[in-house]
Amino acid sequence: MRLLIMGPPGAGKGTQAAFIAEHFSIPHVSTGDLFRENLAKGTALGQEAKKYMDAGEYVPDSVTNGMVRDRLKQADATSGFLLDGYPRTVAQVAELDGMLGGKSLDKVVVLSADIEEVVARLLNRAKEQGRADDSDEVIRRRLEVYAEQTAPLISLYASRGILVEVNGIGTIAEVNDRLMKAISA
Questions:
Q1: Residue-level pLDDT at 133
Q2: To bridge 43 with a disulfide, which of 28, 38, 76, 81 should be the other Cys (CB 3.0-4.6 Å)?
């Protein structure tokens, strides 16, 4: 299975992606995790990514594409993967299409969520995890950037006939049940 999970920051993508990846025995490839890993290791890519993340902006394609390309070449991703946080722009879709070498994604799942619910979730996460990148101002900017740059991908993947939209509001189990039904359909 080659899957992509999309949705605004705080819609529950990471939580649900862990369940989906385990169910299908595929790696969960999260750009957020890739960025944090590079930050923790103090790599040049991590330092470059940090400047943008701290401002609530997307990390440039040159940095993100390289990280994802390297990750998808790893042995555990050869038979499938679940992308989370990539692609985020039309240019990244074209880059991903090239990485897949003529193959395509099997499904693109979009988690939808109310904006105020998302802001509340992210502010709560910031308190629980001490995440400096989740202030109210930065969260709202990330949501604006998502709407401007990522939402257009929804119509692109819908035109390919591989998009399914799932309501991301509810308990983790409720959302997971809806997701699994949508992927299996």
A1: 66
A2: 38
